[in-house]
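User: Alpha/beta hydrolase, Rhizobium jaguaris:
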Amino acid sequence: MTDQLDESVRYLLDISNRSNTRPLETGTPRQARIDYNAGFPVLQGVREAVVSVEDRQISGPDGLITLRIYRGIGAPSKDGPGLLYLHGGGWVIGNLDSHDEICRWFANLAECTVICPDYRLAPEHKFPAGLTDCAAALAFMAKSATDFGVDARRIAVAGDSAGGNLAAVLALMSRSDAAPRLAAQLLIYPNTDATQTADSYRRYGTGFGLTTTAMKWFRDHYVRTAADIVDWQVSPLLAESTAGAAPAFIATAGYDILMDEGTAYAARLREDGVRVISRHWPGQIHGFVSMGKFIPAARLAIQEAAAAWRSFEGTPD
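Assistant: Predicted structure for Alpha/beta hydrolase:
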């Protein structure tokens, strides 16, 4: 029932409905990026101070990749935790600035070093280009861990929405030589099933921000062919097995078309013997963690993700 919507969410949805903003999926990807870049600063609060922020370029398999590196307040000078954060945006939009707030929260709340890659976006660079960049960033982070004061055994991966999809896939890849081993995967309303058949697509397909039409537009720009949709590297829920993946924190939102597949992925991991901590935010919508100016639960969700990560390491919350 919509009367369970968080009041801050209701306020933002009312503003959006009155503004008659053009849906992203009615324009080109280029125009969607322009509109998104104009809108996200309105939703995010004042940037938290961290010890340092640095942009750096590394060589990837297909060219240079820009990384943004955050050192959080309280992060150890050596053998500390490290986090690879993968931004959301449907594989089509989003950038280092759009998720800067979340990276700063993680850096401080987890007292860690965060690396966020500016991975290639679709449709100019379809699957698996973005995933390849993220895997290269993880390999760089593990290889250079000592330089960042990080223990390579304490590296986790995190992401929201499409970034959560990429993070979940890296966590499956890390079971083999395809990617370095991970200490945790922190997934915020992740996309785990690109078939888009979950019932939450019907229940919350319109009126709550991310729509069914928009999600199909994002997916169809990302995949090369229909065969990619059922590839586990696009739909990790469809993997033959998730056994051996890193412990997971999975956050879901109550009025989100991705809610059911996030819940299903948590259940699948548990069935395969993976430790999972789930957190459901019943009054929230997709993307609420990127709305920190208006929604206090945004930072709290990152705080809970950081606490889950610590618990996986066996340290006090």
